[in-house]
């Protein structure tokens, strides 16, 4: 199984340089749709509900302090299976045109992030894990046509 760094590197190779916020959200959507379509996670790394949306802390550690990024140190896009590549490519087709802020705003309206944040005040530094079952239930309940357009 690939890890979040591998998925992020694949995204960067396919889509090119982007903001770190956008990269984080595209990894989140890759995980969500992998759970819905394939019923398995695309990576084992935990996703947390941060103030600006879902974040993979392990990925954050590799790009901390950067605004834009074009390569992930330690990421190997070849680690993704063909099915995982297909999932990420579908996510890029559906969400790749959106900015990091638009993806953050989108995630703020979705149950996995909302429920993980609970009653935390807006802007709180709370970093509660987003439950994989919640991701699978949420994305599995969406029609593929409901992806970002």
From TrEMBL:
InterPro entries: SocA_Panacea. Pfam families: SocA_Panacea. It comes from the Bacteria. Residues 23-113 form the Antitoxin SocA-like Panacea domain. This is Phage-associated protein. The lineage of its organism: Bacteria, Bacillati, Actinomycetota, Actinomycetes, Micrococcales.
């Amino acid at each position: 199984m690939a890890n979040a760094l591998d998925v992020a590197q694949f995204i960067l190779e396919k889509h090119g340089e982007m903001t770190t916020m956008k990269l984080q959200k595209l990894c989140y959507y890759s995980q969500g749709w992998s759970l819905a379509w394939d019923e398995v996670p695309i990576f084992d790394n935990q996703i947390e509900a941060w103030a600006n949306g879902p974040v993979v802390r392990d990925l954050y550690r590799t790009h901390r302090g950067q605004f834009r990024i074009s390569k992930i140190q330690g990421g190997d896009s070849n680690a993704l299976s063909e099915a995982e590549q297909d999932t990420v490519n579908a996510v890029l087709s559906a969400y790749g045109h959106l900015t990091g802020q638009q993806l953050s705003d989108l995630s703020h309206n979705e149950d996995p992030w909302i429920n993980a944040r609970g009653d935390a005040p807006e802007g709180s530094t709370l970093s509660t894990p987003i439950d994989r079952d919640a991701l699978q239930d949420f994305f599995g309940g969406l029609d593929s046509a409901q992806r970002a357009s």
